[in-house]
């Protein structure tokens, strides 16, 4: 066994597009930025959308394509949540970066090199409101010589005055079709074999997140060799097996609380993520023919509440148990209200 | 050395439980481009053991030569400088730490210390550029901010730094982090697997096990390997040769919670609530985590309740545990649960028996 000494990048990085035109599925922003490459005109930008849809990729690609490797360091400042971005940093770091003058806009080494600097604020939704407010002034003061790229998952966490200064682009979850194309491309490069079923499974379990799809693909390739089946992909994806979800519902239908409790204990001991369990429950319940609309409503309402509690950090066992109790009451038409509460 | 440490398997090939996962992990690191890993699963299921064996697989026996360092880091937090104390375990190629130990300052650990570690590429003795692994424990306890701070670091330095994250509850790890890792679920071993581990330890210690004895311990372990091995060792101290009727004692604090449960079943009054408060404090000052107390209390109560009450009581347990997360002082919320229980139980008694 040779110890690992050097390493190459994981596939997600290896297959990160280097050019804006290679970013898949985000046509609008690609069109605008392709235009920028020709005219060098660029507004402030705000990219938002779910994980793994190409936001960081796009911002880095345009910055590289505008300035090339030589000027990149002096013209592009990338600040992300791994940097402290409190008010002080915004005031000092960004200012000192923005304040150094840039030369006139001359093409250099085949790159457009427009006469401004780019500041990429990745994961901007984790900046405090105070820090964002401090940025307003900075943006205005240096608006001639800087362009800001804000990137975030949740646009609602960006304060309005910042958002309204930017051209906004929503990054959509990748469609199954596009996902398939990208995956097939990687399979070709890596010499992998996926049948149609496996391909469609991979697209559906990754839910529009290409990074996730690539990670699953690489893991499955390492574990199961170059021929990968749909089952292999499910086993690396952390999806809860359908039998487990079914068993849970059957226990709830039985009306026997101890049985339901046992299933809940089993889910926890097997280590299935409860948040995942909730979303799969939702799917099954919504599609079930033998559950009335009223029952569905009762169940789903609780699923939403429990999900919120989990996000707040509540205990997985207790939340799932509460969901189990509620589902049982709905399915067995027991009263919604508790009898002894006062 | 305690048996849990003494008999912790050291290599992926020597592992008793989770053999299948171990073999998979071995395949995963055959190439040098494996993704970041997130290990999750219930306490005592064997996550740490697998991670350590995996490191050994990657780096050979040097991975076991760890030194413990207690260092105070000076971190520049804008207007002031913070001193953050941190214990790390490290070998030539890996560093293990527990960033959530810094409490509300965990963000600085991720932003300053972890990033620094990820950035610096190790150079091995032959002058070749090295490869490094950071093991971060209890990532589910990291604040949101700290988790956000980890995202870009995971991408930026991934050419030579891999993260191995470890936690109990992956629901508490943000989507963005999960999306950056291969998620490895470590389920609690089955009772049969636990029996196998216990029998192996018994053999190595040269002990005679009456038939069914290991199974009895496994059954009481709630599928936690650690717990099973600990109580096996306790049994050994208490009485040897073993008999199949030997009592597998539960832990002191569990007995204590059982007492609280019968206290509140017997009497529902402000006076009793006051007495129970004292007992709850006793548990808390002994560092039993509040949610564990609440869950155990629920477990004891469920044993004694009528079916129709179970729904209601479980609901309130979940409700007050959630509140406890949002609040500051755990005692308030556990006590609120006890009071709620008393009130429900009392009206139930009145309705049933007049
Ligand atoms: N639209 C896309 N076209 C091509 N590849 C993509 C696209 N979106 C994601 N990828 C792949 O997924 C990886 C992650 O993408 P990226 O870092 O851009 O995601 P992100 O939108 O910034 O996500 P997050 O919100 O989690 O930071 C890339 O390295 C690339 O391999
Ligand atoms: N695969 C295994 N085969 C045999 N024994 C094991 C195995 N995994 C773990 N053990 C034993 O169980 C004990 C507990 O395991 P470990 O410390 O790995 O649990 P953990 O999952 O990290 O728990 P926690 O989440 O509570 O930290 C170990 O000390 C070891 O003795
Ligand atoms: Mg990103
Ligand atoms: Mg551990």
UniProtKB/TrEMBL annotation, chain A:
CDD domains: AAA (cd00009), HLD_clamp_RFC (cd18140). GO terms for cellular component: DNA replication factor C complex; nucleus. Pfam families: AAA (PF00004), RCF1-5-like_lid (PF21960), Rep_fac_C (PF08542). It comes from the Eukaryota. GO terms for molecular function: ATP binding; ATP hydrolysis activity; DNA binding; DNA clamp loader activity. One of its GO terms (biological process) is DNA repair. It is found in: Nucleus. Gene3D superfamilies: 1.10.8.60, 1.20.272.10, P-loop containing nucleotide triphosphate hydrolases. Residues 41-174 form the AAA+ ATPase domain. InterPro entries: AAA+_ATPase (IPR003593), ATPase_AAA_core (IPR003959), DNA_pol3_clamp-load_cplx_C (IPR008921), DNA_Rep/Repair_Clamp_Loader (IPR050238), P-loop_NTPase (IPR027417), Rep_factorC_C (IPR013748), RFC_lid (IPR047854). Keywords: ATP-binding, DNA replication, Nucleotide-binding, Nucleus. PANTHER family: REPLICATION FACTOR C / DNA POLYMERASE III GAMMA-TAU SUBUNIT, REPLICATION FACTOR C SUBUNIT 4. May be involved in DNA replication and thus regulate cell proliferation. Heterotetramer of subunits RFC2, RFC3, RFC4 and RFC5 that can form a complex with RFC1. Belongs to the activator 1 small subunits family. This is AAA+ ATPase domain-containing protein. It comes from Quercus rubra (Northern red oak).
Automatic annotation (TrEMBL), chain B:
GO terms for biological process: DNA repair; DNA strand elongation involved in DNA replication. GO terms for molecular function: DNA binding; DNA clamp loader activity. InterPro entries: AAA+_ATPase, DNA_pol3_clamp-load_cplx_C, DNA_Rep/Repair_Clamp_Loader, P-loop_NTPase. It comes from the Eukaryota. One of its GO terms (cellular component) is nucleus. Residues 33-192 form the AAA+ ATPase domain. It is found in: Nucleus. Keywords: DNA replication, Nucleus. Pfam families: DNA_pol3_delta2, RCF1-5-like_lid, RFC_C. SMART domains: AAA (SM00382). Belongs to the activator 1 small subunits family. May be involved in DNA replication and thus regulate cell proliferation. PANTHER family: REPLICATION FACTOR C / DNA POLYMERASE III GAMMA-TAU SUBUNIT, REPLICATION FACTOR C SUBUNIT 3. This is AAA+ ATPase domain-containing protein.
């Amino acid at each position: 066994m040779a110890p690992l000494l050097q390493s190459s990048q994981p596939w997600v990085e290896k297959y990160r597009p280097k050019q804006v035109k290679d970013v898949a599925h985000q046509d609008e922003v690609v069109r605008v930025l392709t235009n920028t490459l020709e005219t060098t005109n660029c507004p402030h930008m705000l990219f938002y959308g779910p994980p793994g849809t190409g936001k960081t990729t796009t911002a880095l690609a345009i910055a590289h394509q505008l300035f090339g490797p030589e000027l990149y360091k002096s013209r592009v400042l990338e600040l992300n949540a791994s940097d402290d971005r409190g008010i002080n940093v915004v005031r000092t770091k960004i200012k000192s970066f923005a304040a150094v003058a840039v030369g006139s806009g001359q093409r250099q080494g085949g790159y457009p090199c427009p006469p401004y600097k780019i500041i990429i604020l990745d994961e901007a939704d984790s900046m405090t409101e105070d820090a964002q407010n401090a940025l307003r002034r900075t943006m205005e003061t240096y608006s001639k010589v800087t362009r800001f790229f804000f990137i975030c998952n949740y646009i609602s966490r960006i304060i309005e005055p910042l958002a309204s200064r930017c051209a906004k682009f929503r990054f959509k979850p990748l469609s199954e079709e596009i996902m398939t194309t990208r995956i097939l491309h990687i399979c070709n490069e890596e010499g992998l074999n996926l049948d149609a079923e496996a391909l469609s499974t991979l697209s559906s379990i990754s839910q529009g997140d290409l990074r996730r799809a690539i990670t699953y693909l690489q893991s499955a390739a390492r574990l199961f060799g170059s021929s990968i089946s749909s089952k292999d992909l499910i086993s690396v994806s952390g999806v809860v097996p359908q039998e487990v979800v079914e068993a849970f519902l059957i226990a709830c239908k039985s009306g026997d609380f101890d049985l339901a409790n046992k299933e809940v204990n089993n889910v926890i001991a097997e280590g299935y993520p409860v948040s995942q369990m909730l979303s799969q429950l939702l799917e099954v319940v919504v599609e079930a023919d033998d559950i009335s609309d009223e029952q569905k409503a009762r169940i789903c309402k609780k699923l939403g509440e429990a999900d919120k509690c989990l996000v707040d950090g509540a205990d997985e066992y207790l939340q799932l148990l509460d969901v189990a109790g509620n589902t049982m009451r709905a399915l067995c038409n027991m009263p919604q209200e508790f009898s002894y509460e006062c | 050395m305690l048996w849990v440490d003494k008999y912790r398997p050291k290599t992926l090939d020597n592992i008793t439980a989770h053999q299948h996962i171990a073999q998979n992990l071995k395949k995963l690191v055959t190439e040098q481009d494996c993704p970041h890993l997130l290990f999750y699963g219930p306490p005592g299921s064997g996550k740490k053991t697998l991670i350590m064996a995996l490191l050994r697989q990657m780096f050979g026996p040097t991975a076991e030569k760890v030194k413990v360092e207690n260092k105070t880091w000076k971190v520049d937090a804008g207007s002031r400088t913070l001193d953050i104390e941190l214990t790390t375990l490290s070998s030539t190629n890996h560093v293990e730490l527990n960033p959530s130990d810094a409490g509300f300052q965990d963000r600085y650990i991720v932003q300053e210390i972890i990033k620094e570690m990820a950035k610096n590429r190790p150079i091995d003795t032959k002058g070749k550029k090295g490869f490094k692994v950071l093991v971060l424990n209890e990532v589910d306890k990291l604040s949101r901010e700290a988790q956000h701070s980890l995202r870009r670091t995971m991408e930026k330095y991934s050419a030579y730094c891999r993260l191995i994250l470890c936690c109990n509850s992956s629901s508490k790890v943000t989507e963005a982090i999960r999306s950056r890792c291969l998620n490895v679920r470590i389920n609690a071993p089955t009772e049969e697997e636990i029996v196998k581990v216990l029998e192996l330890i018994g053999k190595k210690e040269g002990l005679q096990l009456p038939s069914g004895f290991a199974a009895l311990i496994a059954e009481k372990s709630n599928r936690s390997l650690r717990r099973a091995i600990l109580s096996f060792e306790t049994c050994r101290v208490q009485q040897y040769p073993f008999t199949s009727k030997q009592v597998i004692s539960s832990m002191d604090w569990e007995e204590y919670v059982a007492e609280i449960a019968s206290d509140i079943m017997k009497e529902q009054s402000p006076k009793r609530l006051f007495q129970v408060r004292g007992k709850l404090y006793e548990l808390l000052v002994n560092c039993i985590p509040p949610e564990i107390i609440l869950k155990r209390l629920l477990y004891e109560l469920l044993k004694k309740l009528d079916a129709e009450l179970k729904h209601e009581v479980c609901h309130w347990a979940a409700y007050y545990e959630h509140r406890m997360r949002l609040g500051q002082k755990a005692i308030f919320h556990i006590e609120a649960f006890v009071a709620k229980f008393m009130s429900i139980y009392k009206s139930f008694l009145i309705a049933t028996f007049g």
